[in-house]
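Query protein
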Amino acid sequence: MAYKIGDDCISCGACAEGCPAGAIAEGDGKFEINADACVDCGACAETCPVGAPQQA
């Protein structure tokens, strides 16, 4: 199950830098995860300072 970034996102980019699959990009007002590219590793959740990425 892919991760999804919630509304708590502060657009710091830590999740995108920590994603080994390159599945995260800046979206409209927050970062977004491409569910097709997400490998469900949890690296984004581990690096996010506000816990915005959650399993969908």
Notes: The domain at 3-55 is CATH 3.30.70.20 (Alpha-Beta Plaits). Strands lie at 3-5, 24-26, 31-33, 53-55.
